[in-house]
Specification:
Shape: globular
Radius of gyration: 19 Å
Distance between the termini: 50 Å
Number of strands: 10
Order of helices and strands: HHHEHEEHHEEHEHEEEHE
Strand content: 15-25%
Number of helices: 9
Structural class: alpha+beta
Largest sheet: 4 strands, mixed
Strand order of the largest sheet: 1-3-2-6
Amino acid sequence: MSTPLILLQDVITLIQDQLRLITELRRRVYYSKLDVFATNLALVALGIRAGYLLDIFTFEKPVDLSNKILSALRACTTTKEYFSEPTGFSTASEEFFIQHHIRETVWRSRDRRSALLNSIFELLIETTELKKLRVVPEPILQCCSYLQEYLSAAPVPLSISFPEDMSTTVAVPVAGVLLDYLVAYVPESAEAAPLSNISLDFYEVIIISKGHTPPSRTGTKGTTDTFRHSIMKFSCTSSLSGMEDLQPQTIIDRLQTLFEGRLKESNVHGSIEIVHSTALVPHLSF
């Protein structure tokens, strides 16, 4: 007998209920933003996405809030089964929620450099000459090794913090890897100048799942509808699209395979759609 598929929106609703019990969120964050936050937390918790950057609201002490959120979700009987592994990850200016088992699997290898080059870190670009790098810079490998050490701990820690002085030459590409970008930009220096009038290929991953609207208090019946949510979006300079592993169709196929595999593994009802577009960007900074 097969296991019933999980409805993504059901998990989102469970998370929403708990987030609204947290005083700081209830008082300072609009419900619409809280719903988007809950959706992205659900995608991380279910293992559909590896990481999520909290960028829709800010708090003075983001690490404390992240710990409070994860503690509440791990303690609640309706959500704890989904939150034994998600971890908070902090840099000087950004707060991520990452899925422990995905990241730990990606980085587990005797040969760290080979493991990274054969997974998410296969594609790297240097911003000045916009060329593909053949090896992963050592500082980035060290950063990933640091993360892997903490993610291998038991129990999984609530949060991991990086030094505040971590260079953007490391922070930018590592953020790309945490967010499942198949192309991670590596600034040549912390003061790398913005690129001007550059053509970019954009790739967006969308999950389509069955949703539902609950009955209203006035007696209106609930309805079943289609739920669409953007999992993530990243770009790659169009000037490199002639390279075999940077061709748009190659990237689209890799994204489709990656996220369809995770959707199946997580036993969540839905499908994956990849949207590709091209645009001329006046300024691209890091």
